Amino acid sequence: MDFGSALRGRRILITGASSGLGMHFARLSARQGAKVAIAARRRERLEDLCKELLALGAERALASTLDVSDETSIDACIADVVEAFDGLDVLVNNAGTASGGTALDQTAEDFDQVVNVNLRGVWLLSTAAGRHWRDTATPGAIVNIASILGERVAKGVAPYAISKAGVVQMTKVLALELSRHDIRVNAIAPGYFETEINAGFFDTPQGAAMIKRIPMRRTGKPEELDGPFILLASDASRYMTGAVIPVDGGHLVSSL
User: Number of structural domains, the chain?
Assistant: First the structure.
């Protein structure tokens, strides 16, 4: 679908961009003519992706090594992007991880790893970007990639669901506090999309049973997130903040 060039010239930082939805959002932003900074721990993937983004139409492309659980790494990443692009317009908090198993079978280390990446990392990045925008008196937008598991629950993903529920609430409280600085904070809550994090699951009997509970009876396609992403990352949503948009084939409204 053609969304025009609503992101042309926008300076966008996308975390967790070495795979999955982060890589998809980077390619989408490039096709829109944005300046795209991609950040993740796997530097070699980022370098290759930068070349692709330029070929797709990105005005600029920057690779930044980032560990979202490390404050020093976050501060360095924000500084790199601001210097390279002479500012920052949009932060996309996409980096995420998960651990499987029932709550009683998961360790404290499992829980800490998921929460450090999915929740603490979003907090650290959002507040670092927020301070930059506040201190430079420039507007900004944060797009958090939450999950429908932040609204309802499923078995075997307790730390993930807990962390995403925190992201949903963080989106709302930061929207309230940062609006005075002309900083908007919104979120997309995807339903079930097949990515590296869940590859193969939907081919299992459990995955097939999950699909049957989705009113549209299928998983989502990454491009079906394009509209909400462009909306929240562009000035088209300049009077929106604190919104959490589900993109889930109707899963959240399915009958109990």
Answer: 1
Long-range contacts of 118-121 (CB under 8 A, 24+ apart): 118/160, 118/163, 118/164, 118/166, 118/167, 119/163, 119/166, 119/167, 119/170, 120/68, 120/69, 121/15, 121/68, 121/69, 121/74, 121/93, 121/95
Does some domain include residue 38? Answer: yes
Q: What is the C-alpha to C-alpha distance for residues 79 and 56, in angstroms, rounded to an integer?
A: 25
Strand partners, 244: 187
CB 61 within 8 A of CB 38: yes
Compute the distance between CA of residue 63 and CA of residue 84 in angstroms, rounded to an integer. Answer: 11
Q: Which two tokens stand for residue 41?
A: 């721990």
Query: What CATH number is given to the structural domain containing 210?
Result: 3.40.50.720
Convert the pLDDT of each residue in 1-36 to its tens digit: 667 789 999 999 999 999 999 999 999 999 999 999
Active-site annotation holder among 160, 192, 193, 229: 160
State the Cα–Cα distance between residues 183 and 141, nearest whole angstrom: 6
Beta bridge partners of 91: 13, 142
160: annotated active-site residue: yes
pLDDT tens, 77-89?
Answer: 999 999 999 999 9
* 51/46 Cα distance (integer angstroms): 9
Q: Residue 189 half-sphere exposure, CB side, CA atoms within 13 Å?
A: 24
